Amino acid sequence: MGLLLPILLAFLAALIGALYLLGVFRQRLPGEPPLDKGLIPWLGHVFEFRRDTLKFLERMKQKHGDVFTVQLGGFYITFLQDPESFGAFVKESREKLDFSKFAVHLVRRVFGYVAVQDEHHILQTSSNKHLKGDGLEVMTQAMMSNLQNLMLHNISSAADQRDWIDDGLFMYCYNIVFRAGYLSLYGNVPHNSRESEEKAKEKDRTESEALFYEFRKYDQLFPNLAYGILSPRQKSEAERLMKFFWNFLSVQNMKTKDNISRWVWDMHQARVEMGMKDSMINKYMFVLLWASQGNTGPSSFWLLLYLMKHPEAMKAVKEEVDKVLRESGQEVQRGGPLINLTREMLTKTPVLDSAIDETLRLTAAPLLTRAVLQDMTLKMADGREYFIRKGDRMAMFPYVVHIDPEIHPDPQSFKYDRFLNPDGKKKTEFYKAGKKLKYYNMPWGAGVSMCPGRFFATNELKQFAFLMLVYFEFELKNPDEKIPEIDFRRWGFGTMQPQKDVPFRYRLRY
Ligand code: HEM
């Protein structure tokens, strides 16, 4: 008996401790948002959330209103769903809502990269210099010549290019845009004569093709990798792929290239100066590849698909593109020089801009997450206040705004001119409950983690669409083909992907 009591007490203490850690005792305190822990200890709602994030958040909103805290895999996450109050999340100080802590954890698990102190600052400085303003000019030129290499390299020689070519639209778009983006950021195979230039370009094409196919494998594993639920076989495949990328993008390999973008080079250099080992810099190069190439390809697919499914949109965009080309004094001619699409020309396409914004409204669905570093008060636009606990997380899923019928009438339909005013200028006035909104379309996220590549990404999409429209005829194999469902497993990871590819065909116009 003397021994039994301490054992029983120890067991009881361990049990209470375990239940505490599982979140069983957490209760909603006065002033806190409604709390929904779900039925499964610790895991909470994670399965329903993973199955279909949008559906789950809509269900929670109906049950609890536009602010609520849910338990997801050991975390308590407060979701904010009222677009008028988004500013309270986006503009909160970093001492209270921190993006880095969450990001550091994710990149370590998913890319093997151990972040450094000044991480985010270096990224922002380099992005401000090289993905905006004059830097963007250089990037846009690089993208143009790489797109030309991939899409038009045999324009003057191959008669068979004038025959129809069958392909899957998703794989076609993703392949070209990924490879051109990669070459523009990570550089080209060098050459020193006209003859070797052709060989170097060919090498760029074959190397980037190999990279794309490995990238797609990783891409498909990514949602489960990020949630840490890969099977042992998938896990070893993910590890193999990671090693492949670290090697492919290694500092050593990079140094053999020409035209490395200043964006990539500066971030590499900053880490060298910090004394970071090459092997860790290689891992960072993979982080950058992922961030820069995972969304633009899928977005270009949706853009072309929506245009093909909406002839009035296709007509309006094509007319605009032809006009911009004409006004630049250029013309596409068989055997003539390739057109040069400058950044300036890309500033004269409000219709295409609107079609891109509309495409991203329907297909970009990031989940913005912050760690709560201090107890804080969330102040809503209508005056409500909620107490948020230190140690929790806060999140926003802007897609709920993208498809809010009060903000965007008939929200499931693609309307290419939704973001155009009658005078042909960009439309920026959208309302909810009679109040003008600042946050009505957020494909790039917002605040401290807002996509630093958004201007370059938009230009990439425009350049690709522009070249497709002026150089190629393209059409769906089955004009009645329905727009495929999106793959719900990818909610929260940026641009969505289709559940299946869409057969199409294309051929050179000239
Ligand atoms: C259509 C294409 C793209 C979309 C929809 C997109 C979307 C996003 C979103 C939503 C985020 C924020 C994620 C968060 O808050 O957690 C983000 C971050 C980021 N994006 Fe993009 N992006 C695109 C293309 C690009 C390109 C082309 C680049 C680079 C050239 C790029 C570089 C980055 C980087 C480095 C971050 C991390 C930012 C940080 O840590 O603060 N993205 N992107």
Automatic annotation (TrEMBL):
Substrate binds at residues 109, 295, 393. It is a single-pass membrane protein. Its cofactor is heme. Pfam families: p450. InterPro entries: Cyt_P450 (IPR001128), Cyt_P450_CYP7A1-type (IPR024204), Cyt_P450_E_grp-IV (IPR002403), Cyt_P450_sf (IPR036396). The keyword Lipid metabolism applies. This is Cytochrome P450, family 8, subfamily B, polypeptide 2. GO terms for molecular function: heme binding; iron ion binding; sterol 12-alpha-hydroxylase activity. The lineage of its organism: Eukaryota, Metazoa, Chordata, Craniata, Vertebrata. The keyword Iron applies.
